[in-house]
Amino acid sequence: MGQADVRSEIARLAREIVERSEGAGLVLMGVHRRGTDIAGMLQDEIRALADISIPTGSIDITLYRDDLGAIGPRPVIGETVLPSGGIDDQEVVLVDDVIYTGRTIRAALNELSDWGRPRRIRLCVLVDRGGRELPVQPDMIGKKVDVLEGQYIEVLVEDLDGRLAVDLIQVGSHS
Amino acid sequence: MSLPTASLGKDLVGLEDLSAEQILAILDTAEPFKEISERRIKKVPVLRGKTIVNLFFEASTRTRISFEFAEKRLSADSVNISAAVSSVSKGETLVDTARNLEAMRIDMVVMRHGASGAAQFLADRIPSNVVNAGDGRHEHPTQGLLDLLTIRDHVGKIDGLKVCIIGDILHSRVARSNIYGLLTLGAEVAVCGPPTLLPLCADEFGVEVFTRVEEAIEWAEVLNVLRLQLERMEGGYVPSLREYNRIWGVTNERLAAAKRDLLILHPGPMNRGVEIDSDVADGEHSVILDQVTNGVAVRMAVLYLLAGGQPESAEAAKQGHGA
User: Fold this and answer.
1) Which of A67, B47, B158, B214 minimizes the number of CB atoms within 10 Å of its CB?
2) Is A67 within 8 Å of chain B by CB?
3) Size of interface A-B (CB pairs under 8 A)
4) pLDDT at position B6
5) A136 in any annotated domain
6) Is B39 in Cβ contact with A114 (below 8 Å)?
7) Do A114 and B43 touch (CB under 8 A)?
8) Does A151 map to a domain?
9) CA distance B309 to B254
10) Which CATH number do you get for residue A113?
11) How much is the mean pLDDT over chain B?
12) Which of B159, B163, B187 has its CA nearest to residue B264?
């Protein structure tokens, strides 16, 4: 997916978020790092679409992972940034770039519950690549992709990677 | 996606053997941990299921509680043992105490001990991670790290900064850890104190030596004022507390003569009116309470980084090399 396709998916997701919201108290929480960028783009789209500014935060799940023992500690821990109004009694939309096993979202849900008690949490992802290991399903999906063995999905965003794209990469290929 | 891993190895015994990358990795990891202590629910599950023993052979309030908070905020299970009420008072050796703890399947030991080198001794003999919380006159690495973090927070850098440590350098593990850490990160370091409380060859550390506090204040940008342990007076190192304060005390009058504002650190507990005057300790350039706050974050970072585990070194210790 090139830039134009990704943009139109994000615009569609933005409309869906607005349509499904129950009115007041909508909050976007991006999962560090690329989920945060996607959440920022959704925020811009919603502002353009409905002329409302949705409070947006960022959540880093490093300390909530279930595989610290296997991967070892990561010295680079991102900061979790809550919107100023917090998440208590808000309608939180959790935003991530790709959903795969569901473990990241499990960690994010645990962390959110340590921060407060949202009225509702919905999950919005740009790409669903299947392969779930936990019963976690997104409410809003940009694109479903069948990923074969030896392939993975790479989401690129402008701030970190210089361009906006979703690529299906063959392991071992150097594109 | 590979993130940089600056492994600390199995143990944290001192700052002497750490590289600048390793020290910076600890300080950078401490940054996000600061935020956890500001949360309503001050707890993350990262060390869930790890058992940590705080083994304190010497009295300590601040350091022990700081480690305890760090452990609890990372969801570890911790147990405190102080020498006075343990089998140490019945004559058990350090290694036997540790082996008995190991037999109960622990993961880490945080130890304070009166003998220099005790932390390394233990680290070489048990497979658990060992964190030195102060060993004799040797090192107190987490205090050194929290001082570095506090200085970096307030000045923005450590490289090229002039830091003077004032007081009883001879007996101070805090001074030693500070000197190693500061020099590794590129600071200029000086020590200042009565000649009886300076090591004979202080300049061999690569530090400046001042015997007049006025000169130190003139030179430095940061002062780390050490506690004068009252028993030093009985040992004949200083004539009296009043005289120590008159000649070596950090006072507002002395600081007023400096050409710039100095950042003031003190590892605590303070003797107000001896090594530091109250108006300095409570003054606007004092960061003494920030040090305490940072202490928890730094200790969380150390425990988190060590918890990654180094199977090879743990295996070596399990074979009991040197025991």
Assistant:
1) A67
2) no
3) 58
4) 61
5) yes
6) yes
7) yes
8) no
9) 48
10) 3.40.50.2020
11) 89
12) B163
In a mutational test of the B interface, the residue from A74, A77, A87 whose CB has the highest number of chain B CBs within 10 Å is A77
Contacts of B246 (CB under 8 A, 6+ apart): none
Using the beta-carbon criterion (under 8 Å), do B3 and A60 form an inter-chain contact? Answer: no
In angstroms, the separation between the Cα of residue B302 and the nearest Cα of chain A is 10
Closest in A63, A65, A75 to B6, CB measured: A75
CB distance B35–A80 less than 8 Å?
A: yes
Q: Does residue B4 belong to the interface with chain A, where contact is any CB pair within 8 Å?
A: yes
Q: Per residue in A70-126, pLDDT tens?
A: 666 665 677 788 888 889 999 999 999 999 999 999 999 999 998 889 999 999 999
Which residue type does A30 have?
G
Q: Tell me the pTM.
A: 0.86
* Residue A163 falls inside a structural domain: no
pLDDT of residue A1: 86
Beta carbons of B35 and A63 less than 8 Å apart:
no
Per-residue confidence at B310, pLDDT binned at 50, 70, 90?
very low
What's at A107, amino acid-wise?
Answer: A
ipTM of model? 0.73
List the single residue in A with minimal CA-CA distance to B46: A63
Distance of CA B1 to the CA centre of its chain: 34
Q: What is the DSSP secondary-structure string of B29-85?
A: HHHHHHHHTTSSS----TTTT-EEEEEESS--SHHHHHHHHHHHHTT-EEEEEEGGG
Counting the structural domains of chain A, the total is 1
Contact B40 A69 (CB under 8 A): no
Query: What residues make up the domain containing A98?
Result: 3-145
Domain assignment of residue A152, yes or no:
no
CA atoms lying within 13 Å on the CB side of residue B262: 30
